Prior knowledge:
Strand order of the largest sheet: 6-7-9-8-10-11
Helix content: 25-40%
Largest sheet: 6 strands, antiparallel
Number of strands: 11
Oligomer: single chain
Number of domains: 2
Number of helices: 12
CATH topology of the largest domain: Rossmann fold
Strand content: 15-25%
CATH class of the largest domain: Alpha Beta
Distance between the termini: 53 Å
CATH architecture of the largest domain: 3-Layer(aba) Sandwich
Bound molecules: iron/sulfur cluster
Shape: elongated
Radius of gyration: 24 Å
Structural class: alpha/beta
Amino acid sequence: MIKAVGLFSGGLDSLLAIKLIQKQGIDVIAVAFRSPFFIANQEKKKKLEKTAKTHKFKIKFIELGTDYLNMVKKPKHGHGKNMNPCIDCHAFMLKKAKAYAKKIKAKFIFTGEVLNERPMSQNRGSLNIVEKEAGLKGKLLRPLSAKLLKETEAEKKAYVDRNKLLGLNGRSRKPQFALAKKFKIKKFETPGGGCVLTYEAYSNKLRDLFKHKKIPSLEDAKLLKTGRHFRKGKNKIIVGRNHEENKILAKQKGLKFEAKGVMGPTTLLTGKPTKKAIELAASLTARYSDAEEDKVAVKYNNKEIIVNKIKEEKIKKIRI
Ligand code: SF4
């Protein structure tokens, strides 16, 4: 049986591409990439596993490392609207998929990309760049738009029947939804597993991280999803928004703050704990606590400080 590797984000397009290839009697092994930016938690991973089980294909998760993070910092082809480096990201994933396909002796690789569905990253020029950068020129099959693209090696060698592939083009998702109905696909994820690199708020925090930390880690990128973030010079302050976030922050390196005698957040202060930074972190802790008075006692490191709640105008200036 012919084996093929398909990139799988959990989204409808990649699932439809898998179904089309499966229909041709090909053994599909879906590759899903995980990072702090997408398919990050176990819940999302499980959803993808469930989809694979429902639609009877194997799934392989590949964890992306700091090399991916470095690419996000400085992508050769630039960022999209936010910090999403979609062209470089696709090429990066395809390179990894190529190595995996070689390892398992798969005959070809395919994706669920649709020509012109995303004006910046899925136009003909971008598709060609991605293919070239990944070292897959003429070898990457896009089953959903294949009829509008040049014949690939998999079609020339008759691993797949080009006539049974599609010629989708453009932003309308109607044909995909019709196809989903035909294939009895009821559940699917948002494309890219809800990639946070496309979110403005997350991108602002990531830019701040890249600016202030020379060698950021994956853990740093992960922590950007936890709490409210504030920047004052070299100090970074993160204030938890709920119990789960407070627990995460309590485990981090740095000074931790909590309001005394009232419910409230755990606050993390990183960078040199100067007197001013401590006062600022304490006043933020006070502001987000349940304390009714303006003056609040805040504990940190077996010490106590009494501060006024920070004013809203000041919050606006330091919130990332
Ligand atoms: S949306 Fe995110 S996961 Fe998808 S290609 Fe762009 S950067 Fe990569």
